[in-house]
Amino acid sequence: MNATPVLDYGAFDALTFDCYGTLIDWEAGILAALRSIPALATLDGEALLDEYANAEASLEAGPYRRYREVSGEAMAAVARAHGAEPTAHDIARLGGSVVDWPAFDDSHDALVRLQTRFRLGVLTNCDDDLFAASNARLGVAFDWIVTAQQVGSYKPDERNFAALLGRLAADGVGQPRILHVAQSLFHDHAPAQRLGFRSVWIDRRHDRAGAGATPPAEARPDATFPSMAAFAATAVPD
Fold this sequence. Notes:
- Helix content is 43%, strand content 11%.
- The chain is an alpha/beta fold.
- Strands 3-2-1-4-5-6 form a six-stranded parallel β-sheet, sandwiched between helices.
- The radius of gyration is 17 Å and the shape is globular.
- The mean pLDDT is 96.
């Protein structure tokens, strides 16, 4: 999908990012963990991602639990749907697999390039310690990190975005100067737009049908790019 050049990037001081799906290849990580369960090893990957998306969203909409528990239980729910019964040890291992999820190949270089012009933040549906492991893979120091663990809720809950706004406002960056960058229409773009954010869609699934590991949603991002590399080249041109 081509970029939609409707934004004046000079109007923004801060870029805030979703992490999983945007910077970290969570679908590769989720599938690797799911396929470590013998009953799931040969099943269609897109179907497994869809099942995971539904299970995770249901858990995140309920009482707050740490993401390692949510992710582990969501994977266990997929396994149970196919006749497996993961043990408590299995569920803990699956939830902890987040630390092994790889970064997209272009994430580090794109963030480094963007950091020459913008301050960078993260708004992530994750635990502090799990994100720290992912941050080490990204190799970039963010100016602000807001996790679901810090807020006690998960996107698309608007409380997470309110916490982000509060954190940046404390450093003198108001909402009109923030551009939110994310892959998930469901978790990020839909709530961001309700709250008046401008947003950029990193459409990592531009060459695949379906919504993958995120539930489908309707949203109209202000610009769309197929990769972080393409976005960074436009936002910070040579």
